[in-house]
Amino acid sequence: xxxxxxxxxxxxxxxxxxxxxxxxxxxxxxxxxxxxxxxxxxxxxxxxxxxxxxxxxxxxxxxxxxxxxxxxxxxxxxxxxxxxxxxxxxxxxxxxxxxxxxxxxxxxxxxxxxxxxxxxxxxxxxxxxxxxxxxxxxxxxxxxxxxxxxxxxxxxxxxxxxxxxxxxxxxxxxxxxxxxxxxxxxxxxxxxxxxxxxxxxxxxxxxxxxxxxxxxxxxxxxxxxxx
Length: 227
Ligand SMILES: O=C(O)CCC(=O)C(=O)O
What we know:
- This protein is α+β, with helices and mostly antiparallel strands and 227 residues long.
- The chain is 32% helix and 23% strand.
- It starts with a helix and ends in a 7-residue tail after the last helix.
- The C terminus is likely disordered.
- The structure holds 2-oxoglutaric acid.
- 2-oxoglutaric acid (AKG) binds next to strand 5, strand 9 and strand 10.
């Protein structure tokens, strides 16, 4: 795919997320088959609760081809400005709402690439973001973050009414975000999601510690449940 990785990396720094329409369009069909091999959904396609497989990259060469592709390498190179590592990958059958959260607040930046195999729209669980909320100095205890998490009590808003950028997605699109950014999905329908997470090669002690913490936190995240 053709993509100006410098511009996308800059969008990620400024806003914390970027939508790449059609970035995985040529593999979407095989990704769908691979997903169905890994997670068996009930006949009506609607599991009662979320299902996650954390070993998606080991089990899905189709997803590994994307995580190891030249365009992902170029984007990670432009963003991290050094070599990068793909640290984890997961396949998720998501149902219902994902409340406002960030995937931790790290001073070391991590990128998460997500692909929805089902179309998502404003009223059917599209991922949404608060632009700029990825700054580590917001933190969990930072006022903006706390107010967003307590949106009903502090702001008188439902989660879906918090002003945000809703990224509607079609199969074949890729959404990439800095995992510090506040994100959510409301009015959720069933959505099959594939994802992988990248970090710049950790050099300093903080980067190495953050990378270990990030890796472990993926497995205890409140926004996904283990199938
Ligand atoms: O699609 C969703 O429900 C949210 C997904 C999410 O929070 C994530 O992939 O980190």
